[in-house]
TrEMBL record:
It catalyses: (S)-malate + NAD(+) = oxaloacetate + NADH + H(+). Residues 156-323 form the Lactate/malate dehydrogenase C-terminal domain. Coiled coil: none annotated. Catalyzes the reversible oxidation of malate to oxaloacetate. Pfam families: Ldh_1_C, Ldh_1_N. SUPFAM superfamilies: LDH C-terminal domain-like, NAD(P)-binding Rossmann-fold domains. It is an enzyme of class 1 (oxidoreductase). Belongs to the LDH/MDH superfamily. MDH type 2 family. Keywords: NAD, Oxidoreductase, Tricarboxylic acid cycle. Its EC number is 1.1.1.37. NCBIfam families: MalateDH-SF1, PRK05442.1. This is Malate dehydrogenase.
Amino acid sequence: TRTPVNVTVTGAAGQIGYSLLFRIAAGHLLGPDVPVKLRLLEITPALKAAEGTAMELDDCAFPLLRGIEITDDLKTAFDGSNVALLVGAMPRKAGMERGDLLSANGGIFKPQGRAINDHAADDIRVLVVGNPANTNGLIAASNAPDVPKTRFSAMTRLDHNRAVAQLAKKTGAAVTEISNLTIWGNHSATQYPDIFHAKVGGKNAAELVNDQAWLENDFIPTVAKRGAAIIEARGLSSAASAASAALDHVRTWFHGTAEGDWTSMGIVSDGSYGVPEGLVSSFPVTTKDGDYQIVQGLELDAFSRERVDASVAELVSERDEVAKLGLV
Ligand code: NAX
């Protein structure tokens, strides 16, 4: 029988944690044949709530779940960790400046990056979900100098899945018929969901839709502002869909993209497509066995280029801000 994989989840007592943990334990992260041990990291005041979630996990009697450890200690949380899902973050509160938000999150992701560096297993893979996800990923990666940068990623898969769903609706296709969609840039309202290389049932999506007004005034803003629309409707931010996207992200990273298709991941830029090296930006990537490669050679016309550049400019300003704070 296989040795269990150690999966660390931060912010385990939060909303996303409550959706995520049960599905990890059910085998939806790594597959139906991979046993897991969960490490739940929380801040001290939320440990009791995390214990409540752990009691419910016990009560599910999941065959793949081989242990749960709950802690507020970074070393314990990341010791021997193989997969780390960094979900807990400092949310933006009313009146908070972006600098304050970045600084508060630096206080979380800098020590977590360091702890991953010092204690995680050699094969560690990290997904940052907590916002601002790209820049939090940059902070974590920068503070883990001994871990290859390619092990760190930030989540834009929810945006990717939202774009797939909207495109399917518009074209009347099934989501399974949609491929080669890309989210470029930051997981924020500046992100650029790109359908110019996407396919619907093998046909070019932009040509099939042939509706520039829908693309500009409906599709792009709907995808980019979906998080706000969910809050407006539900009174709470996206949780089950975010958890589902996190599972998709990690599963695709390990199990690979389908032949000819790709996915979207926030990753440390190697300079491809003019995105400054070192920024954590979303790209089209193919994946296999826990590694990824940026899809090269896609043409970006003026419309796409302008949008990619705008989102990347936002990432540059976030990076400059955290650099000033000594976080990267
Ligand atoms: P919640 O506020 O419900 O839960 C966050 C949890 O993190 C809390 O239990 C809190 O105690 C814990 N936490 C705070 N600081 C911590 C620390 N230093 N160590 C460990 N745990 C800590 O938020 P939830 O709805 O679960 O969302 C979590 C994060 O995901 C937020 O930052 C949110 O903005 C972000 N999201 C990112 C998405 C993406 O696509 N990348 C989409 C969904 C979501 O909005």
